[in-house]
Amino acid sequence: xxxxVVREPVLIFDGDCALCTGWVAWAKRxxxxxxxxxxxxxxxxQFADLSSLDARAGGRGEVMAERVQRGPLWLTPxxxxxxxVQAVARLLMRSGGAWSxxxxxxxxxPVDLLVRLLGLPVIxxxxxxxTGGAP
Length: 135
Fold this sequence. Notes:
- Helices cover 53% and strands 10% of the residues.
- It is α+β, with helices and mostly antiparallel strands and 135 residues long.
- α4 runs antiparallel to α5.
- The protein is globular and about 30 Å long.
């Protein structure tokens, strides 16, 4: 991905994880049609120029494959990086309509923590780097 192509927010996800890949496919299909406040792009970290994206985020090492393996990253055009549940929340808020409210709810600290705690067993089951291989 060339640096000059990143004009909209980018969702960077782990293309090896069945859970991540399936969720992003769902988001492209359903949230892509619903987006009222702007476009976004999704890219698997294996196909992204992570060093260029990190430079866009200020070159602080926030955009790297190891971090993406722990959860998706949402990179705004201004260079702000959100990870994990917060990345999903920002995508939902960007999509507009009722999804904005769901994203706003996810962005709240107590809800974020609850989702992370409840999601941990699911992530361990489906994520190759957490399980040592695909289920």
